[in-house]
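# step 3/5: fold
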Amino acid sequence: MADIKITLKDGSVKEFAAGTTLLDIAKSISQKLGKQALLAVVDGVNKDLSDKLEHDAAVEFVTPDTPEGLHAIRHTAAHVMAQAIQHLFPDVKFAIGPAIANGFYYDLDSEHTFTPEDLQAIEKEMAKIVKQNISLQRAELPRSEALAMFAAKDEKYKVELINDLPEDAIISTYTQGDFTDLCAGPHCPSTGRVKAFKLQSIAGAYWRGNEKNKMLQRIYGTAFPSKEELDAYLHMLEEAAKRDHRKLGKELDLFAIMDEGPGFPFFLPNGMIIRNELINYWRQVHRRYGYEEIKTPMILSRKLWETSGHWDHYKENMYFTQFDEQDYAIKPMNCPGGMLVYKLHPHSYKELPIRAGELGLVHRHELSGALHGLFRVRCFTQDDAHIFMMPSQIRSEIKNVISLFDEVYATFGLKYHAELSTRPENSMGDDATWELATQGLRDALEDCGLDYVVNEGDGAFYGPKIDFHLTDSIGRTWQCGTIQLDMQLPERFELTYTGEDGLKHRPVMIHRVVYGSIERFIGILIENYAGAFPAWLAPCQVRILPITDKHVEYAKKLADKMFDLGLRVHLDDRNEKLGYKIREAQVQKVPYTLVVGDKEMEEGTVNVRRRGEGDIGAMPQDEFISMLQEEIKEKK
């Protein structure tokens, strides 16, 4: 056969015989790459290294330290797990087994109920399969042949999946030794590439996520290129379990989720303190950045939601009501109400930009199985803002928003990275408008010197967006802030301003949130701080402990003095041992504990214990109060 020319990622061109495998090509280019490569991107299509090239191609090899490489490792690990299960439990029927964000899973239909002890046995069998370094072989089959194969194996779920594929779909299988699975790939060349893995949990899952279908058993696992990376991840999970905001929320009396309102959180007095401090800070920052605050109704007419496009694009997530024989919806977003506020008065170019902030309570329907503490709820307060501006102001306004985000996230010690999300399939508007909006976001990111990645097709239905992913104290990321540039809703609501030329023009609008949702942000902070909030946020900032009854009066006068200064102070005058009360203050994660006895009464001082440091010594009352006030003011 004729030789083929291959252009590599670095631009160099190599010649090989047609039918050469990608793995052999990788080895010929670099022995190191040959050992590390997992799969390749050929003309934009991921292919396993065992695939053969029959025509000229551009090739980029993917290694374990890339997202594509890690995905291939985890996808292969899912197949290794399935093969191990087949060896140990031959009667199991296999559904699907994909790689996911933090690992992989496989859904199984079995009369046997899997247990944690079973996971240990499966891991041992997986280790044997990995050690054998079995190659994965891809095959493409005609539909009839694939159906016959899986029907003969009595794999009814695979048969259903094949029948649901489009007529022109390529049907492929991957075989490793005695195990064959229906799969599009890609995978590692062999099972030996799955270096470090761990099976983590067992859960139930309806076939295809439909509660009308059979409940299957789902086994979750994770895999990494090295044992060191796996160990670090498992350690992070252990730390995350200790920080679970649902557990700490209950222990610290912050919030509750009750059966009478699934997905609708109740905030308790301690939680309300944190919530109100966050809102107070939000208002202070936004005032400095030139925002005015508005409030729009929670229930608005169907006509409004039809105009905004939510009735057609978001209806399945909305709640509805009816009165006066008219249809209404409980708002899932604040923006349509913001449009009506803008339209109340005519506007001149001299007024723009108009920055309108709103702490708006919204309701969105979430499936009961998706609800998760404060992270996934059915009602939450969005710290929204809508900015109306001229097209010439796009770059400067987005840069202004990014500056605000920088300040807020730095206050909480949170770093972030940005993602630019482009036009989704289900969207409004024309290509030219979308391109203009997307380029405006891109220009602002580059002006600010921010590194960012492009998330193709993940924009809102009305415009592209920048998402801000925060990194917490144990390395997890959370998507919170977002900036969405919108040229569609101003058009649909016929918003205008009078330009310098005296003519009517259409404004451009920015939707943006900093916290995202106050409820979710509180959940993130609980886990970020492990419940040990900085003094400015802590529900109780100071706990005063008199050693005996004769010190209570001194302690009470001090507590009253601090309370009058606006400090959150608690006097613990219970008839309990001092050591017990100190330990309880530690459990409640109080920033400062003041012990007062004879010496403190005589000298007008307090003995200070700082959370995490212990006893830091005695100081005059006023000196301690000034220190604490400064710490709160500076939000240290």
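# step 4/5: annotate
The mean pLDDT is 92.
# step 5/5: archive (pending)
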